[in-house]
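Page 42, continued from yesterday. The earlier attempt failed because a stray header line got pasted into the input along with the sequence. Redoing it now with the clean sequence only.
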Amino acid sequence: MVRGILTFSLTFVLLVSPFVLSAATLLSDQTLEITASPVGNTYLSGGEVRVSAPVSGDLVTAAGTLFVRGPVGGDVLSIAGTMDIDGNVTGDVRALGGRMFIEGDAGGELALFGGQITI
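This time it went through. Structure tokens are written below.
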């Protein structure tokens, strides 16, 4: 069941996002912790995703729980049950989820759709 949800989530992320193989990081697992800066745009899928390293490009995620502590140089596009963005985002933040906490600064637009949103 969990693998089916992760496969669907990753497929969804890949279909709605531009994907450049030469400059992208693509990871999927039940628990992901990104502690080293990924190259280019980053696509992540997992039950719990933690991003503490700087992301130079866009960050696209599908997660049960998402924590972003490092800065993001591009946009953030996310679907998550619970989302906590503590790092600064240079571009836009577009997200769909249950509970969202946006504590960092966003340089672009915020498009947030959720049950509980705290900015």
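Notes: Residues 44 and 61 are 5 Å apart (CA to CA).
Reminder to self: strip header lines before submitting.
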